[in-house]
Design goal:
By secondary structure, the protein is mostly helical. It contains eleven helices and three strands. Helices cover 61% and strands 4% of the residues. α4 (74-86) packs antiparallel against α5 (93-115), α5 packs across α7 (143-153) and α7 crosses α8. 23% of the residues are buried. Residues 123-140 and 252-260 have low confidence and may be disordered.
Length: 260
């Protein structure tokens, strides 16, 4: 072809990258047979599916086919990319959830934009927007919204909530584990719960130790430093208990099959 397809950084960023092993296998197959079996999909000359195949073919000087599809706008192209990615078989549940959250936010913005247009269909736009989460914390959304978002990702509502709790836990190791596929979401969530229990036990021991520092028969008000530490530890315990209750509430007793 006379003009090579173009890549768009924003479009490419919407697509979960292949693992090094997956990329190596794809390159081996294309280079070995000197053929790219799947066409590169374009919108207005920009790649919306097939970035890896395109890079490999160009690097090895292998011919490839392209298919152009008509889409009404750049936003429509981005939605097409996300929907196409949700059809991939090799995605982890974490990757599916991230794509579903992106899609949900894009649909929400689309609904808002339509609602600002006086000629829009208010009823259908309101319905479309009501399916989508406004924030990244499904626990604060309605059950219906959680289920709609989970359905986009092809996972259960409990899995969605557990993943979001892991994501918001400031535990990069667990998050990386589920995003890479090395850990299942349920397994990582149990590890997170165990970590909170350890923190709660440690805080309880500190509370007991500080209380024992007060001589028998003396008033706590006589020891402002100790009083402040006790208040801080009590607040820590309350927060840990709240977190623990949130995690326990996502347990689905109907799913008693252990994950490995």
């Amino acid at each position: 072809m006379s003009k090579l397809p173009r890549t768009d950084p924003e479009f490419k960023a919407l697509i979960p990258p292949l693992s090094p092993e997956e990329y190596a296998l794809l390159e081996h197959n294309i280079a070995t047979y000197r053929k790219c079996h799947d066409a590169i999909i374009l919108w207005e000359g920009i790649i919306i599916d097939g970035h890896n195949r395109f890079e490999i073919c160009v690097r090895h000087g292998i011919e490839f086919q392209v298919v152009s599809i008509p889409l009404e706008s750049r936003e429509a192209a981005k939605l097409w990319i996300l929907e196409n990615q949700l059809g991939r078989r090799n995605l982890t549940d974490a990757a599916r959830i991230e794509i579903a959250l992106l899609k949900a936010e894009m649909l929400r913005e689309k609904a808002k934009k339509k609602q600002s247009d006086a000629g829009g269909d208010k009823k259908s736009e309101k319905y479309e927007g009501s399916l989508l989460p406004k924030v990244s914390k499904p626990g604060f959304e309605s059950v219906y919204v959680q289920e709609a978002t989970a359905a986009m990702a092809g996972v259960g509502k409990g899995t969605l909530c557990r993943y979001m709790q892991i994501k918001e836990s400031n535990n990069p190791k667990l998050l990386e584990g589920v995003q890479s596929g090395r850990l299942k979401i349920g397994t990582a969530h149990r590890l997170l719960t165990q970590e909170i229990l350890k923190q709660l036990t440690s805080a309880g021991k500190k509370l007991k130790f500080i209380k024992q520092a007060i001589p028998p028969g003396r008033n706590l008000s006589e020891y402002p430093d100790i009083s402040n530490k006790l208040e801080q530890l009590a607040a820590t315990c309350r927060n840990l208990i709240i977190k623990l209750e949130e995690r326990m509430s996502t347990h689905d007793p109907a799913k008693n099959k252990p994950e490995v």
